[in-house]
Write a structure and sequence with these properties.
Number of strands: 0
Bound molecules: heme C
Structural class: mainly alpha
Mean pLDDT: 95
Order of helices and strands: HHHHHHHH
CATH architecture of the largest domain: Orthogonal Bundle
CATH class of the largest domain: Mainly Alpha
Strand content: under 5%
Low-confidence stretches: none
Helix content: 40-55%
CATH superfamily of the largest domain: Cytochrome c-like domain
Shape: elongated
């Protein structure tokens, strides 16, 4: 009984201390604040598990077609992805270096994420990061699948390809 009372009292003290820390303004929301390694680890695990559980849509039959990736390159440029993530031959905007967490180079994540996972992330965004929901930004599913197809092919897309695919008179839609 006495042990239970001690545990209860401790829980109340910890709860009060946390309330003072967070609501008293002691926690820094600065984008420059470094996260402790355990927080970064936990956030990454939570993000990966959340995307894994939700990304269940099957890609359209045209997912692997060259024309789909080319249309995706156009949509990628039009939707502004390159501002944060860069593109072949296109440097990201300076402001993206101030985002926390950092927008990854998509060439590096293309191999790790399945088509369904790419689609889900682009469609829904990632809460409390700079990654927007492009469904809310007005893109439809067909466009989002094409962007996912383009991202999947990114490691093999040359600067010349990207330039040609995103030129307004170029092939594709
Ligand atoms: C305003 C900046 C910004 C724009 C614009 C933006 N992103 Fe992101 N994106 C981010 C940030 C920041 C992250 C990292 C989130 C994190 O670490 O959890 C991210 C993460 C991602 C990821 C990786 C998710 C993972 O699990 O590793 C993908 C894929 C992605 N973005 C694709 C896109 C595509 C495609 C577009 C355009 C349709 C786009 N992003 C536009 C900021 C942006």
């Amino acid at each position: 009984m006495r042990i239970l009372a001690a545990i209860g009292a401790l829980a109340i003290v910890v709860g009060l201390a946390a309330a003072v820390f967070f609501f008293g303004g002691f926690y820094s929301v600065a984008g420059t604040a470094d996260d402790p390694a355990i927080v970064t680890w936990a956030l990454t695990q939570v993000r990966t598990a959340s995307i894994d559980r939700r990304a269940n849509d099957a890609p359209p039959a045209s997912f692997d077609d060259a024309a789909t990736a080319q249309a995706g390159a156009k949509a990628y440029a039009a939707l502004g992805c390159a501002n944060c993530h860069g593109a072949p031959g296109v440097k990201w905007q300076k402001f993206s270096e101030g985002l926390h967490p950092d927008p990854p180079d998509l060439k590096d994540v293309a191999g790790e994420l399945s088509p369904a996972q790419l689609f889900w992330v682009i469609k829904n965004g990632i809460n409390m990061t700079g990654m927007p929901s492009f469904e809310q930004a007005g893109a439809n599913d067909e466009q989002i699948w094409s962007v996912a197809a383009f991202v999947k092919k990114l490691p093999s897309v040359s600067e010349a390809d990207y330039k040609a695919w995103t030129a307004s008179s170029g092939p594709g839609k």
